[in-house]
Each structure stands twice: as C-alpha cells, then as structure tokens.
Amino acid sequence: MTSHMLLSLALRSAAVGYVLLLIFLPLATLTQQSITSGWDRFIQDLSAPQAAAALWLTIETSAIATVINAIFGTLSALVLVRYEFPGRWLLNALVDLPFAIPTLVAGLMIAAIYGPTSVLGTWLQQGGLTVLYNQPGIILAMLFVTMPFTIRSLQPVLMGLERDQEEAAFTLGASPWTTFWKVTVPSVLPGLLTGVFLTFVRALGEFGSIVIVAGNIPMKTQVASVYVYGEIESYNPQAATSVSVLILLISFVVLLLLERLTRRPGERLPKLFRWSSRHEEPAHDSAMPTVAP
Amino acid sequence: MRWLLIGIVWLYFLVLLVGPILYMASQSFSEGLTAFWTEITRPEALHGFTLTAEITLIVLVLNLIFGTLTALVLARQQFWGRSLISGVIDLPFAVSPVIAGFMLILLFGPDTMLGAWFGQAHIKVLFALPAMILATLFVTFPFMVRELTPLLQTLGTEEEEAARTLGANEWQVFLKVTLPALRWGLVYGATLTVARAIGEFGAVLVVSGNILLLTQTATLHIYQSYVDFNYVAANAVALTLLAVSFAILTVLEIAKARAETTVAEAGAQ
What we know:
The complex is a heterodimer of chains A (293) and B (269). In chain A, 75% of the residues lie in helices and 0% in strands. Chain A is mainly α. Chain A has a single domain (52-287), classed as MetI-like (MetI-like fold). Chain A starts with a helix and ends in a 6-residue tail after the last helix. Mean pLDDT of chain A is 87; it is low at 268-293. Chain B has 269 residues and is mostly helical. In chain B, helix 1 packs across helix 12. The two termini of chain B are 44 Å apart. At the A-B interface, helix 1, helix 3, helix 4, helix 5 and helix 6 of A face helix 1, helix 3, helix 4, helix 5 and helix 7 of B.
C-alpha cells in the first residue's frame, strides 16, 4: 500500500466517521427508541388528542404557507429577473435576509408589528383578522423563514431561460397567459419543485419564530415542534419520540420525492439543496425539463 | 400589468420583511437610547453574547476543518457508500431544531450507554457547553460541505496534478493550490455557519436547560425576557442580533459574487 493510498484512506475514515457520529448516531438513537416502544405505542401517542391536533395544525399551516410562498416566490423571482424598477437591487439583496436573521428575532418582529399593541395589529383586529396567537401568525412566521427558498431556486433558472422560446410562442399567437403556462412553467418546474418542497419541510419543523407568535394554546395554536418541546420539558420522552419520528418521516419522504423528481440522469451527488449550490448550468437545465407537466 | 406585478412584489416584501424590521427597530429605541444601552450591557445580556460568541467560534473552527475534509473526500474519492454519506449530510436541513436537540437528549441521557460513560468520567454533556456545541454542529454541518463539494468538482484536479508532478507533497498541494481556489467558497460557507450558529434557538434551548448566567445564549436570553414580559430587554438584544444579521448579509453578498467569479474562471480555463 502506498503512502498516498494510506492518506486517502485515513481522510475518508475521518470524514465518514465524523458524519456518522454527528448526524447518523443521533438519528439512529431516536429511531431505535421508537422501535423499542413498539407500533401500538406509536399509534397511541399520535392519536392522543393534543398530539393529533398539533400535527394537523402543523401540516395544514405548512401547506398554506407553501402555496402562498410558491405563488409570491414565483412572482418575486420573475419580477426580480425580468424587470428594471426602483429598489430592485435592494429587494434582491434582502431576499437572503431571512437566512441571516435568527428565527426567534423574526418571531419577535412579527409579534410586534401584527400584535394588539401596534396600530396595524389593532386595525386588522377591528377588521376581524386576529394575526397574533392565531393561525395567520403561524403562517406568517413560516412564510418569513422560508421566503428565500422559492425565489432563490427559481432565479438562476429564469436567468438562464431562453427568452426566444417565450417570444416564439408569442409570435405564434399565444397569449401571455398561455405562454406562461406552456413555456415558462415547464422549464422552471424543477427549480420550482425544489423551492416548494424545501419550503414545506422547513415549515414543518419551524420552532423559533412560531413559539413567539402562536401563543401555543394546546388543541388550538400549538404546532408539532412546540408540542415536542413541551413533552421534553414535562419529562415525557415517549410522546416526544413518536411525534418527532412522524415529522421526520414526512420530511424525509418529501425530500426523497423531490430528489426523484428533479434528479437528472447520470447525476452523481444528490442536489437536494440547490439554493446553496449556485454552480449550476441553468441554461442546460431549462432546455431539458426533467419533469413533464 | 408590469407595474402592477412590481407593486405586488414590493408589497409582499413590505408586509413580510421590511415592515416588521423597521417597526422593531423603531420600537427598540422607543424607550430611548439609554434604556437600549442598559439592556444590552446587563450582565445577563453580556453573558449571553459571550456564550453565543464562544459557541459560534468553536463550531466555526470545527466546521472549517471537518467541512473541508468531508467535501474533499466526497469530491475527490470514489468509495462504497459515498452517495449514502452524501445523503446523510443533507438530513440536518430536514430535521426540526427541537428534534435535533431531543435526539441529543436521548443519546446522552443518564440511561444510555454514552450518557452513563460520560457520567462516570464526570463530564457533563447535557445542560452544559458540550451539548450546546454538538447541537449547533448538527444544524450547521451541511452548509460548508454543500458549498465546497460542487466548487471542488467544478475546479477539477488538473492544477493539483500539475503541482504533484512538480514535486509538491499532498500537504503543499492542499495549502498552495486547493485552499486558495476554495477561499470564497469557504467564506460563504463560514458566513452561513456563523449566521445559523448565532441564531440557533430550538436545538440549543432543548439541550442547554436555559440556565441563567450559565447556559443562556443571546437567543435564549431574548426568549426568557420575552416570556417574562420584559419586552424592552427582548427587543434590545434582538435588535443587536438583527444588526449582526445585516453585517452577515453583506459578507454573504460579497462572497457569493467572488465565488461565482472563481467558478467562471475555472470554467474558462
């Protein structure tokens, strides 16, 4: 064995060992804990009224936040890429801000401006919309922390998208609406799916901002992550384990699905997190949509 | 149509991002600068800032070392189980911070083998600094690896091979060829790590026990103040972290532009 081979073997063992200890071992412990307590217990924990309510609320608000994020994220990405307008560079720079702001601080900001102590919050409340300690607050918090996902996954694809395809459709008599649905959407679909799925997974697990704005009333505004936290604090690791395992399962299935939907043939590394790897060739990506509409 | 769309996007940013930030900034100073200064120089707040800085620094150093190592191994070596390891690295993105913290509690609890072992050795892991560092390492690990792996793949091995042919040893190749090419990617990954480490709340809350002046980080101090209805203190410390976020954002934007230039240059060669 040469020294070069020894070196690469040593480096590989160190990297793999580190990843296994840091990430795999904790996950395996949780899984083992759940399996030991058995299937019946799992179902029993999940069907406890408070747990079931928290899970439903989380899935429901995450789904709503994902849809809103997909619509406004697509619109924002389109406008930021296509149009010149006052403040464009500012908005473009601000998109990444939710990644840099602590989620707890995000929660405080939303609570302050949409709470009953502010003019806006009072006005909304008089209009019949209670944001704080209510579902809209939870959705708003989820939207804040997931804001960059859709915009950042779509922007590079839109920039690489050949305008001539759209113009050709236009020349052939398609309306702007038809062009958008038949030409733009299919080409950007992989990017959009990435943004949407990441948004959903992130929203499912969000804690810091929601714990502030939701009020955490059991059966009403308590989301799953807050429920898990409550069970840990009240020394009930069993219930915390079951709910955690279910959330993790949903997240992993969503991510696996995303991977299957967006993986290009022959691709070596999973590209789950395109928003962080900006070294793509979007032109190539957009020319060959991997997912047929 | 065009101006309508631009208007909607501006409104979306205003409602979600700009409005809340500006409102919070105005609120924090509503009690005056002196109150703001008193709150952020309180011993509890200062301790929180120091602890957050400590954890961030340790996590950053470990992520720089192990993140670069893992990225190098993933980008340069072929081995059995490689794609599995690559998939495992992405998992922390999908794990709720509270669950991440909970997993550490299960792993190091007094009933487990590891927990009992550390207990006998009189090393306090849970509700102490080690668990807080582990929790932060868990949630930040993907940033560096996901930034560097594609960068390494784009850069290729030609220059490294050339250096080897010229008689450089592996360490020299790494220091003189690989590392300089990676520098803006490293800065970008490091900045994301720092941002997440400073802002981490859920995972740290669960494993730290939130003990005043002992395991209370800056974010935990904000949370405690908020729960105790001390909104002035919560807002003051939150605004300080917000200012840090803007500094982080600036570095991110610069590093992003530079990293793209590096990739473009590598592509042109």
